[in-house]
Amino acid sequence: MATSPFYPPQRILMGPGPSDVSPRVLQAMARPTLGHLDPLFVEMMDEVKGLLQYAFQTQNELTMPISAPGSAGMEACFANLVEPGDKVIVCQNGVFGGRMKENVERFGGTAIMVMDDWGKPVDPEKVEAALKAHPDTKILAFVHAETSTGVRSDAKLLTELAHQYGCLVIVDAVTSLTGSELRVDAWGIDAIYSGTQKCMSCVPGLSPVSFGSRAVDVIKTRKTKIQSWFLDMSLIMGYWGGGTKRAYHHTAPVNTLYALHEALVMVQAEGLENAWARHQHHHQALKAGLEAMGIRFVVEEAARLPQLNLITVPEGVDEAAVRARLLNEYSIEIGAGLGALAGKVWRIGLMGHACNTKNVLICLGALDAVLSSLQAPIESGVAVGAAQAFYQA
């Protein structure tokens, strides 16, 4: 049976990811495919590595994109650093801390859980108590920017704590990379992973990772074989290492790497500090509009992610129906709550290319219109004006 080509509609992606992809990035993907060992492609790989080092703010030699989405970056960190019997303190304040626990246990480690409420950052005092209670801990693992709740934890402080007690750290930076301040070398982060589909405005499918010298030493002195062949850093570095001579490991997703290269060129051109400030600036405008409408934020301001806004659903409103109308009538995607927050909150993303004045005003106007038509208990007709007043101040 013959089928027609698939032509997706143009959406405004303001959920928890993926985010809108820059037209420049989409155009880069359409360039001619080279062989993955072609000398010109290898030159581009070296540029990608250097650009990722800038994005992570690191000089780590072992910095590269894993040829799979962010979950593979997570698994790469745990597969390479956790051996059977290792004790790992895992901080959980949302969905992705739970996935860290799964990884620890699947690689034979013991997960010591430090639990915080969803919507709250990781509590350093609880972490220090766990480190004191388990002096044989090898690794502290935590999420810098919890995608399920829009919470930012203090990665610098948590890393300092871990090192005081002789531990490595593994950090999830899927939603924070290029959207919030992140300094791998200055903060001493040992292993970190991210994804391309959030604040970098790139397509999904790659997972940037970086391993510091302490982590590399642990990988080199392992007593057991790394359980994943595909994610074995000692093998992948033969392909992603320096120089023009590369050992074949796998067929890299060539055109997707063109996209990442273009996205990182755009990050470098804007400047990291400017990108961080842009996300904060448009978050403040969105906040002004939502609060004028009477909608509350869940996360305290000090721990709030500008690129992922967790807001309460007004009383008596069917949150799924609102999301469906935003999608069908306005082509705007926002996210639902997960776990204990399901049905109670929305997650509005302001990530990368989607983080701009136009999207803030369109989203506020559409949300205002839909909620007003449902006679929701909000202040109608004021949200856009409040955001515009912020921009004009």
UniProtKB/TrEMBL annotation:
GO biological process entries: glycine biosynthetic process, by transamination of glyoxylate
Cofactors required: pyridoxal 5'-phosphate
Pfam families the record matches: Aminotran_5
InterPro entries associated with the record: Aminotrans_V_dom (IPR000192), PyrdxlP-dep_Trfase (IPR015424), PyrdxlP-dep_Trfase_major (IPR015421), PyrdxlP-dep_Trfase_small (IPR015422), SP_NH2Trfase/AEP_transaminase (IPR024169)
Record flagged with keyword Nucleotide-binding: no
Keywords of this entry: Aminotransferase, Pyridoxal phosphate, Pyruvate, Transferase
CDD domains given in the database record: AGAT_like
GO molecular function, one term: alanine-glyoxylate transaminase activity
Family membership: Belongs to the class-V pyridoxal-phosphate-dependent aminotransferase family.
Residue span(s) of domain Aminotransferase class V: 36-338
Domain of life, per lineage: Bacteria
Residues that bind substrate: R347
Protein name: Alanine-glyoxylate transaminase / serine-glyoxylate transaminase / serine-pyruvate transaminase
Residues modified to N6-(pyridoxal phosphate)lysine: K198
